[in-house]
Write a structure and sequence with these properties.
Largest sheet: 8 strands, mixed
Number of helices: 17
Strand order of the largest sheet: 3-4-2-1-5-6-7-8
Number of strands: 14
CATH topology of the largest domain: Rossmann fold
Radius of gyration: 22 Å
Number of domains: 2
Structural class: alpha/beta
Length: 372
């Protein structure tokens, strides 16, 4: 086996390290307890310049390495990425004997340009653009990396099943909760937002974008059926669906503050009665393991969703409806359970068993074998 000090994971997704915290950062931070991580940031500090900084024990963030690769790809000059990647990653090979490239996206695929010994793929999301050509191109790239990878992780059951068609070594690695994001001192420090309704009604919260995935009909039906509840939909309202939301937005018990700060999001989840996940049922949304499910559970908030696969297969923590009337009825049941300490304890126990530290422990069982 390669000595501990001689092994490293190079992790690429395209996100900025300092951007919105997501699976990529949570998993990297948890895995850094086992092995050094080099995180390829999607941006740069100065155009044309690669910067390397150690931001925590065992975590090094490299900025400016991936950004030019994106620009070269957009200009159909991808061949130059090989030279760029090799030149600016030489220090990694000098420092480490065994390099595991952990790729979490399938568009740029920088593993093609940076020398490494082992490839691992994190299959996180389906293709959100369902137009035929875009979907076909996505699937071609996905199949290529699945066939090359020594191991694959998948966030959801349907992604796991799809990946297994092309790779025998696939592990289901769901999303998880980050307890540190909702530490008591952070919740106490979160001030009431200016947009918070003052009517005293119990709040049904949705934290996320209102986009093409969002089930407008189910949410509108629930808001109409439950005037005693304030529905707060906190996140970007995408222009393409704004017109379809006109009826929903006109309801007096619906608040749509737009994109909210991290602090406002904490306040919302801490003070809501129930958490909503109204995604339109179908193949695309069946492949999403919602991170917000774990956040709602961690705070003991009953979860109501449409009958997408990742919710419908967890009836112990999520009450789902197959159509708008059933979703609305589930909202009513959840409101009753929101007063139950036993319900809150059950949800918190689920979250405690599904933290990012637990996910890293699962992942390391697979990854450690690849360093032999």
């Amino acid at each position: 086996m390669v000595k501990q000090e001689d092994r490293v994971i190079v992790y690429a997704h395209g996100n900025d390290w300092d951007g919105v915290r997501s699976r990529q950062r949570y998993l990297v931070e948890a895995l850094s307890h086992y092995v050094p991580i080099i995180f390829l940031d999607g941006n740069w500090d100065k155009k044309g310049q690669v910067t390397i900084r150690e931001i925590a024990p065992n975590i090094t963030v490299v900025r400016g390495l991936a950004k030019p690769m994106v620009q070269l790809k957009l200009r159909n000059m991808e061949m130059f990425s090989y030279l760029w990647g090799w030149w600016h990653s030489r220090w990694i090979r000098k420092k480490y004997r065994k390099i595991l490239f952990f790729d979490a996206e399938n568009w740029l695929r920088p593993y093609r340009f940076i020398p490494h010994d082992v490839l691992v793929f994190d299959c996180i999301d389906p293709c959100f653009d369902r137009s035929p050509q875009v979907l076909a191109d996505f699937e071609d790239r996905e199949q290529a990396i699945l066939k090359q990878a020594a191991a694959v992780f998948a966030t959801a059951d349907t992604l796991y099943a799809s990946a297994k068609r092309y790779n025998a070594n696939v592990t289901l690695l769901n999303n998880a909760c980050a307890p540190e994001d909702y530490a008591p001192e952070l919740l106490q420090a979160a001030l009431k937002p200016a947009w918070w309704p003052e009517n005293g009604k119990p709040v049904a919260a949705y934290l996320g974008s209102v986009d093409w995935r969002f089930d407008i009909a189910a949410t509108e039906r629930a808001a109409l059926d439950h005037p005693e509840v304030q529905f707060i939909l906190a996140g970007n309202l995408i222009a393409e669906v704004a017109d379809k939301c006109s009826g929903l937005l006109a309801l007096p018990n619906v608040t749509v503050p737009g994109k909210v700060s991290v602090e406002d999001g904490r306040y919302l989840l801490a003070h809501c009665a129930i958490g909503l996940i109204p995604f339109i049922p179908g193949e695309m949304n069946d492949a999403i393991n919602p991170v917000k499910m774990y956040a709602y559970a961690y705070l003991g908030k009953p979860i109501v969703g449409t009958a997408v696969h990742e919710l419908a297969t967890r009836p112990e923590i999520a009450d789902t409806g197959t159509e708008p009337a059933a979703f609305s009825a589930a909202v009513g049941r959840a409101l009753l359970r929101s007063h139950s300490p036993l319900e809150a304890d059950k949800l918190k126990a689920f979250a405690a068993a599904n933290t990012w530290d637990k996910r890293a422990e699962q992942a390391w069982v697979v990854l450690e074998k690849l360093f032999i």
